[in-house]
């Protein structure tokens, strides 16, 4: 696929501009921040009180082979994100960490309904997070790192507040919220339970993505696209079940896989997380490369940087090591993501033409 015979190293990859579409705010806290806020608010249920031990616990607990068990550690991060100050800090540090990894555009999602235990309104929750993102952008710019971060508000698929959260997305659409999502355990909670929310988004000419095809199979993907009208797929790795590879290496696409490729539906693939949840057995067996070779619109994402102990650079490195990718491949995946962002077209194009392509041109030489 790539003309480069030698794999790229982590230090070089860190220099590459990156676009991130699938990153959960409550899955990306610094362990030190979790400990610090917990001490401030008197939260004493953490499984460890040492930074390194806590980081190891999150990573180990998340590597469970089950999406349901993978989600359990989030109880601790959500618990320390219940005040405006904490939400602002977490959002600010999120931008700092992404900028340090040369992310030039990021869409970070979170579920406002999980952060109202101490009396905050949904609007106050979103206000605090957006303020943190904005201040993080300014701080990064002051250090010579230009980054744009936008927000997706997420509804929990097991709850009954999706229409309310969709309305929240529209209220804040001109203030930094660019889309809507549903997340949580897939099995037993199909996306069609939230049709009202998706119809509301479409009626308001707004964009949304849906977690589908991660822990559940093709029916989840089919519903997300055919019935709900998703613009992108969160994960979607089980689309591989609709692709048959013959002994001679020729691939045959089923009807669902074909329409997703034909319509250029973006896949928000998260390699390390997909292994941790048991969606795939290993990075080497991840369908990312098959989908990339078949020219699906694949993108590289972190999902949960704390739980997966990862960064965008590390996700790219793992793909490089598994599949031998070079700069031209990483550039294509990055442009795929930027094309698929929920920013207005002119802003997407500006980042592609004025940031991503020029910086890759320097790296490629």
Strand order of the largest sheet: 1-2-3-4
What name goes with the CATH superfamily?
Metal-dependent hydrolases
- Can you summarize the main beta sheet? 4 strands, parallel
CATH topology: TIM Barrel
Structural class: alpha/beta
Shape: globular
Oligomer: single chain
**Unreliable spans:** 1-5
N-to-C SSE series? HEHHHHHEHEHEHEHEEEHEHHEHHH
CATH architectural label: Alpha-Beta Barrel
Function: Catalyzes the hydrolytic deamination of adenosine and 2-deoxyadenosine.
Site (Important for catalytic activity): 235
EC number: 3.5.4.4
Enzyme class: hydrolase
Structural overview:
The structure is a single chain. The chain is an alpha/beta fold and 365 residues long. The chain has a single domain, classed as Metal-dependent hydrolases (TIM Barrel). It has helices spanning 10-15, 31-41, 51-62, 67-71, 74-79, 84-100, 122-142, 162-171, 195-203, 218-227, 255-262, 271-276, 288-293, 312-323, 327-340, 345-364, and strands spanning 18-24, 103-110, 148-156, 177-183, 209-212, 232-235, 243-245, 251-253, 267-269, 298-300. A four-stranded parallel sheet has the order 1-2-3-4, sandwiched between helices. It has a four-stranded parallel sheet with strand order 5-6-9-10. It has a two-stranded antiparallel ribbon with strand order 7-8. Strand 5 (209-212), helix 10 and strand 6 form a beta-alpha-beta unit. The longest helix has 21 residues, at 122-142.
